[in-house]
Amino acid sequence: MDKAQRGYLILLFLFSPFLGVFKIFKLKNEKDITFFTTLFFGLVGSAFVYIKGTDGHSHLMNAKANYLDMSLGEFFTKSYEILTFGATKGTTDIYLHIISFLSASVLQKPELIHVFAGFVLGYFFIKSVLLVLKDNLFVKKSYILLGFITLFLMIQSIGALNSIRMWTGMWVLFYGSYSWAMTKEKKYWYVILFSVFVHFSYAVILIPVALAYLLQKQKKYLLRCTLFLFLPLQHFHLLKPTSQK
């Protein structure tokens, strides 16, 4: 794609992001697909509707209450507290802390938290999809199948903007883990570790991934360790609603 075509497509996305999505299916360059999908998610984030009581609304209120007047010194102090597990109020994940500071303090526009979140989510989402499709990316598919795929992916991706952290962390972890499993390149461990910075709960999920790395040739022990870690968690999850009643 030359500069003129890229410019026209950018204008189309600015005019109507959802019309631009249909153009993405016709792109044949992976970098172009990544760029425009990431742009699309950012634009969707700019139109995010804040409904009282949702996670998205809570994040916005937190940004307005704690970040509009935050100085750079306060930002680094808070960052230290988060990284050393000393933060007890407000934001407790460094990822949300950074985008809240950039949006509310630096740019004085708290609503931009979902634009930044959209860019990050969109990038790791499309990189994961491209990784899975791989050589089958340009195989001709029926429009009905593409429609179902698009609907599923939108539910599991665009809808994730509300929480900002949880599903973004999932896509980051998936991309890093899948890439490492396919290539065994250690650089993807930085991507995997980034998921913990997005949402600290992924530190627990990171344990079986680390075991997979350490026990690559011991599949029998790896399976036992994975079951040992996840079955109690699943049992707790099933019992939790009952215990709350």
Strand content: under 5%
Arithmetic mean pLDDT: 79
Characterize the biggest β-sheet.
none
Oligomer: single chain
Question: Can you count the beta strands?
Answer: 0
Contiguous helical run count: 12
Bin the helical content. over 70%
* Derived structural class: mainly alpha
Q: Give the uncertain stretches in residue-range form.
A: 229-245
Tell me the span between the first and last alpha carbons. Answer: 57 Å
Radius of gyration: 20 Å
**Pattern of helices and strands:** HHHHHHHHHHHH
Question: Given the C-alpha coordinates, what overall shape results?
Answer: globular
Give a written overview of the molecule:
- Helix 1 packs across helix 2, helix 7 runs parallel beside helix 9 (166-183) and helix 11 runs antiparallel to helix 12.
- The chain has 245 residues and is mainly α.
- It is built from twelve helices and no strands.
- Helix content is 73%, strand content 0%.
Question: Which labels suit this protein?
Answer:
12 helices; disordered C terminus; mainly alpha; 245 residues
Topology, please?
Blueprint: H1 3-15, H2 17-24, H3 30-46, H4 55-66, H5 72-83, H6 94-106, H7 113-133, H8 143-157, H9 166-183, H10 188-198, H11 202-214, H12 219-244
Helix pairs in contact: 1-2, 1-3, 2-3, 3-7, 4-6, 5-6, 7-9, 9-10, 11-12
